[in-house]
Design goal:
The chain is of the alpha+beta class. The protein folds into three domains: about 160 residues, Immunoglobulin-like (Sandwich); about 160 residues, 60s Ribosomal Protein L30, Chain: A; about 120 residues, Alpha Horseshoe (Serine Threonine Protein Phosphatase 5, Tetratricopeptide repeat), CATH 1.25.40.10. It is built from 16 helices and 15 strands. The strands form three sheets. Strands 1, 5, 6, 7, 8, 10 and 11 form a seven-stranded mixed sheet that branches. About 30% of the residues are buried.
Length: about 475
């Protein structure tokens, strides 16, 4: 029997179709309609989605119909997984002969009596360079006995054209020779008047001591961490003679050192102490933010060159009401201990180990280690983006962390997030180039030229190449 081929002139969206194509098409081939068609690229995948309406598809008992999306560009082509609809006799013919489907295991096959009226089709395929500019056709072939194709129909759904996407530059951070970190805080430990002995059950001491212990435990129980020092600095308030306050601040800091040493058995060289006899800096911050009656005058006295005892006595004498207020509401908070736990973290070199640490304790990773694990993922994927998002959370003020996170956001067309990170990415050539890449993706080519020229002036060769593309009129 002679084969009959019908080519339908459904030239939909053939020109200037962007990376993501969305159309509504009806009756593209006999018996079949297509709606919600979309063809878009994300990282290494090109994904084809559509709704296939087969309500009007009638298949003779001794025939089969094969529906196949086909990507074509010149001599290159790729058949996507087919949908097969089999008449009753044709279905049993395949069963008797031990055959599953016409096109192979990837085919979605239905008996005509069981076919859905509408099928949601989704097929991701690995992107190859030849697919840029490729046309997606929708092919129907009608099969009779003896594996003979009786008729073929074909319609065109659209074309995939890659948008102009400059190569993004992810900067590798310098590796840290020693991964040094620290945790710090303040504890407000109460002592009975003129005493330097710590009573854990006194007032809120149990809670305040627990803050220091929790900070130490958070790193001490980590097998990848080595504590290098525990630094303590005690502060006293100004209401007693300066010499007496000096003795109190030294003695109370020493008492806390003894308490910590007894709990953790640190060597003397690990615990370092310092002291501030009178916390005038803290008093000044409090007064400056307050609305006390003689705020300006008291600030002037605090900033004066008077001896501490004379200064405190004058405030008390000239402004007794304000002094009583400060004594009650401010002075208790001035008596505190600042602490800092310094530690080092071992380096991680294996990608699988870095992935585990990122999931469990991302604060233990360096920016360079984040960069190494990002390289194990395809650009634009969720996993790739998550690495740089985590890195910038750990290093929120680092310019390289913000630059790489911005590039990851640009790669996923998340322009709002990219702008947020670019605000903190600095003014390196790579940062200007990233801003140009964002402008190109938003089709603001004049802004892109300004940023590219800045990057070029600093010496980034890639910026000159992209400028040349723009000069040659490349937009898509």
């Amino acid at each position: 029997m002679k084969r009959t081929i019908f080519i339908l002139a459904a030239m939909l969206g053939m020109l200037n179709v962007p990376e993501a194509v969305a159309q509504h098409t009806k009756s593209i081939i006999p018996g079949v309609s297509i709606d919600n068609f979309d063809m878009s690229r994300n990282g290494k995948y090109l994904t084809v989605e559509m709704g296939i309406d087969m309500a009007g598809l009638d298949v003779n008992s001794n025939r089969a119909v094969l529906l196949t999306p086909r990507l074509v560009n010149g001599t290159d082509s790729l058949d996507l997984p087919s949908v097969g609809v089999y008449g009753r006799r044709r279905y049993y013919y395949y069963v008797r002969n031990g055959m599953n489907t016409i096109s192979g295991d990837s085919e979605q096959a239905f008996r005509v009596s069981e076919k859905p009226e509408r099928l949601a089709y989704n097929s991701p395929i690995i992107y190859e360079d030849w697919m840029n500019g490729a046309t997606l056709k929708f092919h129907r072939s009608d099969w009779g006995c003896c594996q003979e194709i009786l008729a073929e129909y074909e319609g065109i759904l659209g074309r995939h054209d890659e948008a102009f996407f400059p190569d993004l530059i992810f900067v590798q951070p310098a590796a840290e020779i020693v991964k040094s970190r620290s945790l710090s805080g303040s504890a407000f430990i109460d002592f009975p008047v003129d005493q330097t002995v710590i009573y854990p059950d006194y007032r809120r001491n149990m809670h305040e001591l627990a803050k220091i212990e929790a900070t130490i435990d958070s790193v001490r129980n980590d097998e990848d961490v080595t504590i290098t020092s525990v630094w303590l600095k005690g502060f006293a308030s100004p209401e007693s003679p300066y010499r007496h306050n000096t003795d109190l601040s030294i003695g109370r800091t020493a008492a806390l050192k003894k308490h910590i040493k007894r709990l953790y058995h640190f060597a003397d060289s690990i615990i370092r102490t310092d002291y501030e006899p009178e916390n005038w800096e803290g008093l000044r911050r409090y007064v400056e933010k307050s609305n006390i009656d003689h705020r300006t005058e008291i600030l002037a006295l605090i900033d004066s060159d008077m001896e501490p005892d004379a200064k405190e006595a004058k405030i008390k004498r000239l402004y007794p009401a304000d002094y009583r207020f400060l004594l009650q509401n401010c002075y208790p908070a001035l008596r505190r201990t600042d602490y800092r736990i310094d530690y080092t973290i071992r380096k991680f070199n294996r990608v699988e180990e870095i992935r585990r640490i990122m999931a469990e304790r991302p604060q233990n990773l360096s920016l360079n280690e984040f960069y190494l694990v990002a390289g194990s993922y395809e650009e634009g994927t969720k996993e790739f983006t998550e690495v740089y998002e985590t890195a910038v959370r750990m290093f929120p003020n680092d310019t390289v962390a913000n630059l790489n996170a911005a590039n990851a956001a640009i790669r996923r067309d998340d322009f709002r997030t990219a702008r947020k990170y670019l605000d903190k990415a600095g003014n390196s050539a790579e940062a200007h180039y990233a801003r140009a890449s964002l402008a190109i993706r938003e089709e603001d080519y004049e802004a892109a030229r300004i940023c590219l020229n800045k990057a070029k002036e600093i010496g980034l060769e890639q910026a000159a190449l992209v400028l040349e593309d723009l000069d040659n009129g490349r937009r898509k």
